[in-house]
Structure formats: C-alpha cells, structure tokens
Amino acid sequence: DYYSAISELERLLDVEAFIVEKFDEYLERAHREQENLKRFLDQIAEQQNDRGDLEEYFGNPINAFITIKRLVHDWKFNVFDPLFDSSNFETYKNNLSDSLEKINFKGPTQEDLHGATRALLRLQNIYQLNTDHLASGVLLPGEMNPLGTSLSASDCFELGKNLCQIKEYSYGSEWLLEARKRLHGKPLGFISPNVSDVEILEHLSPAFNGLGNLKLAHKLNNEILDKKPDHEDALKNKILYEGQLARERSFVPREQAELPQKELKESYKLYTQVCRGELHQSPREQRNLRCWLSHQGVLYYHLSPFKIEQLNIDPYVAYVHEVLWDSEIDTIIEHGKGNMERSKVGQIENSTTTEVRISRNTWLWYDANPWLSKIKQRLEDVTGLSTESAEPLQLVNYGIGGQYEPHFDFVEDDGKTVFSWKGNRLLTALFYLNDVALGGATAFPFLRLAVPPVKGSLLIWYNLHSSTHKDFRTKHAGCPVLQGSKWICNEWFHVAAQEFRRPCGLSSDEGKFLHLKDK
Ligand SMILES: O=C(O)CCC(=O)C(=O)O
Ligand SMILES: [Fe+2]
C-alpha cells in the first residue's frame, strides 16, 4: 500500500513522472513523424505541381527514375512502414487500403525500379556520363543543372544498391560513393538522409570486393565494425576478406570478372562510339554526298518535290525531308497509342522481350486504316518500290534509355519461313515522328554514321544488294534516348514485286562483306 509511507508515495510519483516522460517522448516522436509526413506530402505536392507537360517531364531521365523510386520505395519507408507500425493508425490504414482497392491501384514494382536503374546505367555507359554530373541533373558537361532535378543520398543509395545486385560493381560503387558524399554534405530534401552511412558501407564494401579491390573492401568493412562492433555480416566478411588477403599475398590468382559477350563485339563498340559522336565519316568520305530535289517521275511532285539528302552512297542510305505533315503524325500516334506493347525480337513463334530492344510498338494495317492510303502512296512514290509485298506500318516508341542494339533487318533464310513468297526485307523506310532532345540517333556502326531524328523526315536504306543477297554492312541500331522520348514508324519493303523497279545486276553479290556478319 502507498498510504502508509511517504517513501512509497514518492515511488508512485516517480512512476508517474516516468509515464509523463514516456508520453512526452511519444508525443515528440509522433510530432516528428507528423512533421516528416507533412514535409513528405508537401514535397510530393510540389513535385506534382512541377510536372507540366508529361512527355517533357518524363523525358528527363531523372524524373522517370525518382517517380518510380518514390512509388516503390519512399512511400513505403517514409510513410506506410513507420505510421502503420503505430497501432492507432489501424483505422486509417484500413480506410486507405479500401480506397486504393476501390480504384484498383497497382503501383510500380521492384521490377520497375530495376528497369529504371538499368536505363540510367545504359545511358551512363553509352554516353559516358559522370556519376556526380548525373546525380546533379547535368547531362552535358558544362550545362548548369538543365534538368532542374537532382538526386538525394537515398536515391543514389538505392541506385548503387540495385546496380550491385546485378553485379554492376563499377557503377554501383560510384553511386554508393555519391550517396556517401551527399549524406555528409548538405542534406537535399526530406528523404535524405534516411539512409545511414553503415547501410551504404554494407553495399560499398562488397562492391569493391566484386571489383577485385580487396584491400579497400576490407578497409570499408572495418569502418562498419568501428561503428557497429557486433555487425554480423561485417564480422563474417572480415574473416572472408582477411583469408583472401592472406591467399593473395601468397599469389593465388583471383577470378577475373568477364565482360558480357556483346560488349566484346566489334559492332557494339563501334555502335557506342557512333552514338556518342566520337566516330563519324571524314569530310573526304562525305564529299561525294549530294542533296537534291526530286519529283521521282510523278507529276504532282513537280510542284512539291521530295528533298533528298544522301547520307551514304554504297550501301545507299538517305534522308527524305518533310515527308509527313504534323497533322498526319498526330493521327498516326493517336491511332496507335492505345495498343502499344513491349517490343520483342526474334521470329513470331519464339520472339521474346530482351534488353536488346527496349521500346513499345504496335502495327497499323492499311486495310483497317484507309486514312493511311495517302502515306502508303507517298512511300511508293518516294522509294519507287511496290507496297504489294510490304508489311503493315509499325509504330514504335522509345522512352528514356530506350534503344535497339545493332541488328540486321533482313532474316537469315531469305525470309522463306517467316515471309514466304514476299522474300526478305529489301528496304527499310523509317519515319521520325518527333525531334529527340538528346540521343536516339539511328546508328550504322560499320558506316560510321549516326542519323539524328528529324520530325517528319524519312530515312531509307537498302538492306540487300541488288542481287537480293544480304548486305552485312547495313547493321544498324537505335541509340539510347538520353532526354525526351522517340517516336518512329517503320515500313519494310520486300523483295517480291520489285522485279521491274529494282532490277538485279548481272553478277551475284552473295557472300560480299561476309566478314561483318558476326562482327
Ligand atoms: O530506332 C531506330 O532508329 C532504328 C529502329 C530499327 O532499326 C528497327 O526498328 O528495326
Ligand atoms: Fe532495324
């Protein structure tokens, strides 16, 4: 009992004081949580207000990444996890899940975040972008924050961690170091710093081990142990690293990380150089190229001739400018937009989605879309070929980091299995439906040619020699889109029905430039 002695009452007051203290702590924490939540919500509202034109907004690689990251990661860690843990939030939680269920909301997934990570990696790789520049929103050296967005310590951490998960230790470690730099520097936004130095080190140390820099991995691992002496993984890694270091001192060779097969290919190396503009034709090579106005023998075009700009003579590659009206472009995109699917490679029955081709596409059949007849006629007029054996029009859209790695448009067996009587793909006619802010050129690695998209222009090239044998010099690619998005439309003309329009020569071209086939 408490009444019999003051000492017990004193204890009661102590307990009461303790409870007050605990409640104070609770309120303070709740207040902090609310403030954090408020700041989080304010910042989202601000970012939502900033978005303006959506094509333009998501044309910025950093906006695309942070939007996905915010939905996959930040909401969970900043709002749902901490708040839903406190039990009085149960009612809110149920209300919220009910509301989300009602509108059938499915947010982006971890897979989306990985996709966005790989897109940034590809851009960095092909355009050789500095990590610290990209983190500050600078795509071209010298430009001052043109994207107006920069990444927080937590964004960089998430990127670095994801990159290490796919064994991209080199870029992964750079992003983790960037996260560390941003953690120690001025905090950017509310999300930062919700990542700790130890968390970064937990990924950075194994990344350097993956890169073969065992000594640095060991040193960083020790930094974890300085901060958390009983960190389980760090203790395990310490034993592992010290064992490896001891072996290394006795000259046991380590396994070397191998470059992926494709990056060893000559055409891939040339492709990245052509996309970056490091490799191009010399003025001497270009001096025989011509521009001219052509009516192609069609009366109508005497009044409004085609504007032809030669880009390569043999094999023949040319731009035809101002072929599509803006209104036609709008109609094409309007009709296809709703039916776009992730592009595949390979022949119909065993085609798959791969990193080789990252875009979405759909087909527009001429029969089903009579409004296309004028465009079809124009394609015949400009190429001088028949569309009798042509494919439907293919509409393609590439997002940030979207690309199509070097490939041939013709198929191996001259089209016997997939194209039957039509024969192989003779000529590619590619319409550019918009200008691309940065990147997205059509690249011909063996011709040292990068063709930048020009809205309304048509790019044409022959994939086959005049004897209809495959021309291996026509390997080509779509460079990754660095800023903006890219819309194109493909038409493939086939061999059949062109007998009188593109006659063969007297000799066979079979096997010419065969050495380029697998290069
Ligand atoms: O996107 C490009 O510029 C090239 C597209 C291409 O080669 C194709 O779709 O076959
Ligand atoms: Fe192609």
As for the CATH topology of the largest domain, it is Jelly Rolls
Coarse structural class:
alpha+beta
Briefly, what CATH class of the largest domain?
Mainly Beta
Shape summary? elongated
User: Main beta sheet: strand number and arrangement?
Assistant: 9 strands, antiparallel
Calculate the terminal CA-CA distance, rounded to whole Å: 92 Å
Strand content of the residues, in percent?
Answer: 5-15%
Helix content: 40-55%
Poorly predicted segments: none
For the secondary structure, the number of strands is 16
Number of domains: 2
CATH architecture of the largest domain: Sandwich
Biggest sheet strand line-up? 1-2-3-13-9-16-7-6-4
Radius of gyration: 30 Å
Bound molecules: 2-oxoglutaric acid, fe (ii) ion
Please count the helical segments: 17
Q: Going by CATH, what is the homologous superfamily of the largest domain?
A: q2cbj1_9rhob like domain
Average of pLDDT:
84
Cofactor: L-ascorbate
Pfam families: 2OG-FeII_Oxy_3, P4Ha_N, TPR_P4H
InterPro entries: Oxoglu/Fe-dep_dioxygenase_dom (IPR005123), P4H_N (IPR013547), P4HA-like (IPR045054), Pro_4_hyd_alph (IPR006620), Pro_4_hyd_alph_FE2OG_OXY (IPR044862), TPR-like_helical_dom_sf (IPR011990), TPR_P4H (IPR059068)
Domain Fe2OG dioxygenase: 389-495
